[in-house]
Amino acid sequence: MSDRTKIEWTDATWNPIRGCTKISPGCAHCYAETFAERFRGVPGHPYEQGFDLRLIPGKLAEPLRWASPRMVFVNSMSDLFHKDVPDEYIIKVCRVMREAGRHTFQVLTKRSERMRDMLRGPLGFAAEAPHIWFGVSVEDRKHGLPRVDHLRGAPAGLRMLSVEPLLEDLGELDLAGIGWVILGGESGPGARPMAVEWVRSVRDQCRDQGVPFFFKQWGGVRKAKAGRELDGRTHDEKPRTNHGGTEGTAKTRAEREVPG
Fold first, then answer.
1. Does the pLDDT of residue 1 top 60, yes or no?
2. Which helix (H) or strand (E) holds 105?
3. Are 29 and 191 in contact (CB under 8 A)?
4. What's the DSSP call for residue 235?
5. CATH number at residue 192
6. pLDDT tens for residues 122-157?
7. Quick one: pLDDT at residue 87?
8. Is 252 left (phi over 0), alpha (psi -120 to 50) or beta?
């Protein structure tokens, strides 16, 4: 069921869009594509068309029916800002998020320029909502770091980074305006390795700049065996949610609005 998930940093997933296309190295071993393509051609299955991009209007109202507040990862099996998703449909998705204010919504994209431009324009109503968090994926310096600048240039209730899969040392990071960093290694067959030094660098920079840090996994072929401890402990910091208390840290300098 989409209202439950095993993803460590969220409570539920919601997929009013299915399918995507690859645009950068982080997409090479996409877990969503691998899952979806297993069911291509299976009559009646939600992924009968594999990982082909599809709009699913019948799922738009799902979060409105969930009574208990939860953190919701939006389009875990797609990208809301994919070039082939019409502006009008993106606006519909965001209007549902705006209306379902008891939940906290987490939106991640690799199409950061389109997200920035829409948040500055027709999605301004969603950018103003503190319970809608917008973020970008960051896998390396060439493709990932420019997305951070695009995100910083967008108004948002909270800005988050999903540094997964981390494919190289990211170097010095400017985390101004960023409210949460999630980091993880690649998992599954052919998983690319992640060095502990890369992870420590991001963790330490989050600590120094006052940003909650969540370490999801080491990954690898045997994800469960590798675990998610870093230097003898787990790192489970989360920002405040709109539905109760604090999860991880108090309000940080990085949660301040950044002009632009």
1. no
2. strand 104-109
3. yes
4. -
5. 3.20.20
6. 999 999 999 999 999 999 999 999 999 999 999 999
7. 98
8. beta
Residues 6+ apart with CB under 8 A from 149: none
Predicted local confidence at residue 212, as pLDDT: 98
- Measured in degrees and rounded to the nearest 5, phi and psi for residue 203 equal -55, -50
For the whole prediction, is pTM greater than 0.85? yes
Domain ranges, residue 98? 12-20+28-255
Give residue 256's pLDDT.
33
- Judged by DSSP in three states, 143 sits in helix
Evaluate whether 202 touches 183 at the Cβ level (below 8 Å): yes
93: in domain? yes
Among 65, 79, 64, 72, smallest CA distance to 21 is for 79
For residue 123, CA distances in Å to 16, 97, 179 come to 17, 11, 20
Residue 67 β-bridge partners: none
Residues linked to residue 187 through DSSP beta bridges, in sequence order: 220
Q: Show the 3-state SS of 15-46.
A: CCEECCCCCCHHHCCCHHHHHHHCCCCCCCCC
How far apart are alpha carbons 179 and 144 in whole angstroms?
A: 17
The residues, any chain, with a CB within 8 Å of residue 13's CB and separated by 6 or more, are: 2, 5, 7, 72, 73, 74, 76, 77
Average pLDDT, the chain: 92
- C-alpha span between 159 and 136 (Å, rounded): 8
Count of domains forming the chain? 1
Q: Which SS3 state, helix, strand or coil, does residue 67 take?
A: coil
User: For residue 81, is it within any domain?
Assistant: yes
State both tokens at 191.
Answer: 């998983």
Query: For 224-239, b where at least 16 C-beta lie within 10 A, e where not — what string?
Result: eebebebeeeebebbb
Tokens of 174: 């400017």
Does residue 3 sit within a domain? no
